[in-house]
Amino acid sequence: MRPVSIALVLLFACVPASAQVAQSTAFTYQGQLRQAGVPVNGARNLAFALFDAASGGTQVGTTVEAAAWPIVDGLFTVDLSFSGQLTGQQRWLEVRVEGQPMLPRQPITAAPVAQFALVGAAGPPGPQGPAGIAGFPGSMPSVGCGPGDALREINSGGFGFACETSGLQGWTRPSADLSMPGGTRWTQIVRCPADAVVLGGGVEALDRRESGFPRYTTLRILESFPTFDGGRWAWQVGLYNTDGVSIRLRAFAVCALT
After folding, report:
1. Coil, strand or helix: which one is 111?
2. Are 201 and 254 in contact (CB under 8 A)?
3. Class of domain 4-116
4. Between the CA of residue 253 and those of 172, 214, 232, what are the distances in Å?
5. pLDDT tier for residue 146 given thresholds of 50, 70 and 90
6. Which has the closest alpha carbon to 12: 66, 70, 103, 86?
7. Residues 33, 8: Cα–Cα separation, whole Å
8. How far does Cα 218 stand from its chain's mean position?
């Protein structure tokens, strides 16, 4: 097996404690994995264990497993939690890739341990900050562009409009729905109707949370640009689903007749 090396970065997300909200013990771990000097791509079985010494010593707490964890261009991010083990004593983190320890172990800095000190009475309020800029007066005027025109810019603090009056009409938004399995790349082209020009385009998630935000955040847009396909203007997007979950998407183009 070719040698595997790992460059390690620890990022600690500590949420302030309060009487109403329990303190989280999780922190974020980022690493870069290389094999024979080349960044690794694909899924690897990762494991994380906490020790009381830089070498040898005794493991404290349980091992956190991250099976088939996605790695893109050598980079990966995982949330770790060693409940009850970061109480002020020095600890070292051992990372294992496919069961092989990546040595030396990483010392845990004071950042995650500090979560146990985030208690106590609130301090006095600070000085008042400088006054902000003046807001808009009253309400926005109900003016805009005419039928068939396009809004080009808003100026004068939102009270002036510049419109494209080149006779755009017949606005359409053609689209194509697709389902992307995890770990796949895909190029999608959405064509405008005949004699129409493309003004823009993109991709939207079809699976959404109750808040309206996309349910999955593993999609990477590799490219998004206008193109010409089959004798028509079109919009092309290149997509990469970095996770193992299939996601439903809708690619679209914004078109108009001139």
Report:
1. helix
2. yes
3. mainly beta
4. 8, 20, 12
5. low
6. 86
7. 8
8. 7
Cα–Cα separations (whole angstroms), residue 120 to 19, 116, 117, 126, 127: 10, 11, 8, 17, 21
Nearest alpha carbon to residue 190 among 139, 222, 228:
228
The type of residue at 82 is F
Q: Given the structure tokens 């950042």, which residue do they identify? A: 111
pLDDT tens digits for 34-89? 888 889 999 999 999 999 999 999 999 999 999 999 999 989 999 888 888 877 78
For residue 9, the tally of other CB atoms under 10 A from its CB is 12
Which residues of the chain does CATH 2.60.40.1930 include? 4-116
Q: Cβ distance 96 to 46 under 8 Å? A: yes
Nearest to 198 by CA among 178, 225, 176, 221: 225
| C-alpha span between 258 and 253 (Å, rounded) | 16
pLDDT over 90 at 238, yes or no: yes
Residue type, 109: T
In angstroms, how far is CA 136 from the centroid of its own chain? 34
DSSP 8-state code for residue 113: H
d(CA 33, CA 254): 41
1: pLDDT strictly greater than 90: no
Does CATH number 2.30.30 belong to domain 169-257? Answer: no
